[in-house]
Amino acid sequence: MKDILLITPPFTQLNTPYPATAYLKGFLNTKSIDSFQMDLGIEVILELFSKKGLESIFNAKTFNFEGQKTNLQRIYSLKHEYIKTIDAAIAFLQGKNPSLARQICSRNFLPEASRFQQLDDMEWAFGTMGMQDKAKHFVTLYLEDLSDFIVENIDENFGFSRYAERLGRSANSFDELYAKLQDDFTYIDKITLAILKERIEAIQPKLVLISVPFPGNLYSAFRCAQWIKKHFPNIKISLGGGFPNTELRSLKDQRVFEFFDFITLDDGELPVELVYDFVKSNKVEISTNEFKRTFVLENNQVVYKNNSIKNDYKQSEVGTPDYSDLLLDKYISVIEIANPMHSLWSDGRWNKLTMAHGCYWGKCTFCDISLDYIKLYEPIAAKILVDRMEELIAQTGENGFHFVDEAAPPALMREVALEIIRRKLVITWWTNIRFEKSFTRDLCVLLKESGCIAVSGGLEVASDRLLALIKKGVTVEQVAIVTRNLTESGIMVHAYLMYGFPTQTIQETVDSLELVRQLFETGVLQSGFWHQFAMTAHSPIGMYPEEFGVLPQTNEITFANNDIDFKDKSGINHEKFSFGLKKSLFNFMHGIGFDFELQEWFDFKIPRTKIDPHFIVSCLEKENNFSVKPTSKIIWIGGKPISKHFIKTKKGTTWQMTSLTFHQKTETVELNLETNKATWLLDILEKISLENITPMTYSQLKTDFETTMEDFELFWYSKQIITLRDLGLLVL
């Protein structure tokens, strides 16, 4: 028995748990509140895609394929091959049978339907993929074929990372979702509720917390709550998560409370604690109790209760996320191949953490900066963060981390990287950033040394005029330089790209594509994704649309309110650019199509670009600024060199020299210095190595040098020190 059951309803990711319930369970541990968590999504997927599950699907009804796609007939005809191979295929994606990769890649093990037809066009893309990844891609296509069959014949709402998503997207009224919930259970519902029944009976919770991060989880959340209300009416149910935080802030429809007793907004720790206190007290009258950012039904009216005087918990107080109870060894890694950054989302198990609550920038006009999860910025101390990383490694056995920040702050990234290196941890991590000038070459080298493998960031419209209108705080030139610094350090870079921003002209769209083409051609960008601008209710554009030249199409709000339909006063149909932008980007990511005229990507007339064909190259060719601030920290992350003294003679003059040999991971470098300078350098490298808690500043370094020698600047910019900079002497 547990007091609380935390549920993530179907579906989110296949490869790793969505972290919301783990965050909450970690907090509940600090309050000694017993809880159990489950990811219903992965449990349903594993039930569905199993020998027993496929037998049930293929025997679900008498199929009549007359007039249907021949592809579905093919899948049904091969049903025994699918049933025979499914358990082995899933085990392979769980990392339990890697030797199966050779059979899978032979192309005579898995049955193949229409999803495999794309391989004729994509075989060239496998050049850099190993056999394991190639096999994962084949199994992914195999599962997608089965998904097509399920959607067409079993449950039209099925999707691997979403379920009945359309019902949750900007549903200003609850009517459609409510009507759907009166229908008979779907095939997926039956599997979901059978698993839920077993868990409820085992846990016997007093309170069920259902976290809904996305619209694709909403229907299942309501279906689960409906079933619990009917069969276990004494259990109280609370809804929280990303979807209610953004979409349900204007909730008015009383029918929602036929399913839920509470709906909490924003940071869940204190609201959940107060809801739990109320449930545990067995009080009946809600009005006498304190709540934090919580919707309840009072006198048959939806009431927002925020009457607690308690302050929210600081990030240092919420505890380490706890992934216990989750089926960590049963998640499956899939590879869709088209986008290298997206493969990080779907391939491999990642522990999820947050470096800082909110966004340190908090100005972008398209972003929900009015909401607490963005506007309230609070970083976590690096030592606490790395402590939590070590706890999670011990708990999960996984060394991979995805920091899910809105935009990870560069200063904190630096301190976290230093702490990881100091502790000699072997970590692999990635996160989201802003392409700001703080990401110098040296900082990027440090991040890579600590285990950073990739970053994503918003280039958005790739136009300086529009970037200024967005208040992004970056320029295209700055993005080019930062992406160069990251790429040269060995960190993969993904760019979020946007088209159709208010006032964006056709010429600006074409010019944005040209700049993106140049970024890929110069090799400083490896991944990207175009999406069309969407106006949200809690962004500056949504709140003040007249300032951005858009006309919102508003409806009465009784349920969800986030995405807002609008008309751009320019009258441009931005949607027609979608196919050409995405097709060109797909080619650029695979290193081809750079010599095509931009017109070739579109089946309608576009203007010629006005961007200089060498614009990005010219940005990258600008000289690095070698000036160093007096307060800059100087750190040595290289190893200890081997020194050897020798005598140098020139024109009858002899003097003491020292050879310093640096053995790096992939090379050996030798520096020859005058012995007095070499002796000083050896001493300094010891002092500024990461074993030292307080690195020296440039000013301190200069002062120390000039106590016994002269012309520090001449020495600092010498060939030997420039070489040392490439070996791990960093200015931060």
Description of the molecule:
There is one protein chain. The chain is α/β, with parallel strands linked by helices and 732 residues long. It has 28 helices and 26 strands. The strands form seven sheets. A seven-stranded mixed sheet has the order 2-1-5-6-7-8-9, sandwiched between helices. Strands 10-13-14-15-16-17 form a six-stranded parallel sheet. A three-stranded antiparallel sheet has the order 18-20-19. Helix 3 runs antiparallel to helix 5 (79-93), helix 17 packs across helix 18 (441-450) and helix 18 (441-450) crosses helix 20.
How helical, in percent, are the residues?
25-40%
Radius of gyration: 29 Å
Q: Overall pLDDT, averaged?
A: 92
Count of alpha/pi helices: 28
List keywords for this structure.
single chain, 732 residues, alpha/beta, seven-stranded mixed beta sheet
Summarize the structure.
This protein is an alpha/beta fold and 732 residues long. 39% of the residues lie in helices and 17% in strands.
Topology, please?
Blueprint: E1 4-8, H1 20-30, E2 35-39, H2 40-48, H3 51-58, H4 70-77, H5 79-93, H6 101-105, H7 119-122, H8 131-153, E3 158-159, E4 162-163, H9 175-180, H10 187-203, E5 207-211, H11 218-231, E6 236-240, H12 242-247, E7 262-264, H13 269-281, E8 294-298, E9 301-305, H14 340-346, E10 351-353, E11 356-357, H15 372-375, E12 378-379, H16 382-396, E13 400-403, H17 410-422, E14 428-433, H18 441-450, E15 452-460, H19 464-470, H20 476-489, E16 492-499, H21 506-521, E17 527-532, E18 535-536, H22 540-543, E19 550-553, E20 563-568, H23 578-589, H24 615-620, E21 633-636, E22 642-650, E23 653-663, E24 668-674, H25 675-687, E25 696-697, H26 698-705, H27 712-716, H28 719-727, E26 729-731
Parallel strand pairs: 1-2, 1-5, 5-6, 6-7, 10-13, 13-14, 14-15, 15-16, 16-17
Antiparallel strand pairs: 3-4, 7-8, 8-9, 11-12, 18-20, 19-20, 21-25, 21-26, 22-23, 23-24
Helix pairs in contact: 2-10, 3-5, 10-11, 16-17, 17-18, 18-20, 21-23
